[in-house]
Specification:
By secondary structure, the chain is an all-beta fold. It contains no helices and eleven strands. The strands form two sheets. Strands 2, 4, 5, 6, 9, 10 and 11 form a seven-stranded mixed sheet that branches. The chain is globular and about 45 Å long.
Length: 119
């Protein structure tokens, strides 16, 4: 089992910045992917950004150039620096962890943190 604890989020004006953080604990596999997805009510959860433990990052086209993902592998923590926020970035953001090796490759999710961008 893996537990994810998120922090950050909140209310910000359009053009502003926010930083999300997520720390994983439990049965962490060394080679893994951590990142962020977001979901609006009634819509499918979508990728925002992920990063592997090796440092390979993947971004949704809609956030490229505005959001930056980073990791501290020693602390099993992932951060998402969000800049130039737009109203359409308003969503619940979920931290995600998935092992990329080993026997347990289940995806784990945080409880979600609300990001609201006022226009």
């Amino acid at each position: 089992q893996v537990q994810l604890v998120e922090s950050g989020g909140g209310l910000v004006q359009a053009g502003g910045s926010l930083r999300l953080s997520c720390t994983a604990s439990g049965s962490i596999f060394t080679i893994n992917s951590m990142g962020w997805y977001r979901q609006a009510s009634g819509k499918q959860r979508e990728l925002v950004a992920t990063m592997t433990s090796g440092g390979s990052a993947n971004y949704a086209d809609s956030v490229k150039g505005r959001f930056t993902i980073s990791r501290d592998n020693a602390k099993n923590t992932v951060h998402l620096q969000m800049s130039s926020l737009k109203a359409e970035d308003t969503d619940v953001y979920y931290c995600n962890y998935q092992a990329l090796g080993g026997w347990n490759r289940s995806a784990y999710w945080g409880q979600g943190t609300q990001v609201t961008v006022s226009s």
